[in-house]
Protein: Integral membrane protein
Amino acid sequence: MMSTLRRLDPRQSVLCLIAGLLAIWAFAGAFALITGALDLGPLARARLPWQSPVLAGAMLALVVGVPMTVVAFVRTAQTTMLAACALIGWILLQLLVLREFSWIQPVCVILAVIVAALGAPPVPARGATLR
Structure:
């Protein structure tokens, strides 16, 4: 009997792992914002559009969670770059809107850069010919 499983190369495995982790973090954060389990505090809440953590949670799921989930399953150069840029854009937007800094923001930016690098096509070795 033939197995339908195929082996991923190590780059693809790490990409899948990191994208999956980022997607889980995004959906967990979105859930916490929507349900009120994560309290941003009155000052940060006042800076949110329409002072709505529910909207912020929904946007977090759509802007970060969904693209990273797609990367975990599809892993094309275009999807990885789009998802990485969306995450970096989300972090920049957080900094501009909330004007608060957290240790997880640079961690997410670094992971987004890693996702983009792992999803990019490998650079051919010097002197190698493309076929």
The chain has a mean pLDDT of 89. The CA atoms of residues 16 and 72 lie 4 Å apart. Residues 11-119 form one domain. The chain has one domain: 11-119.
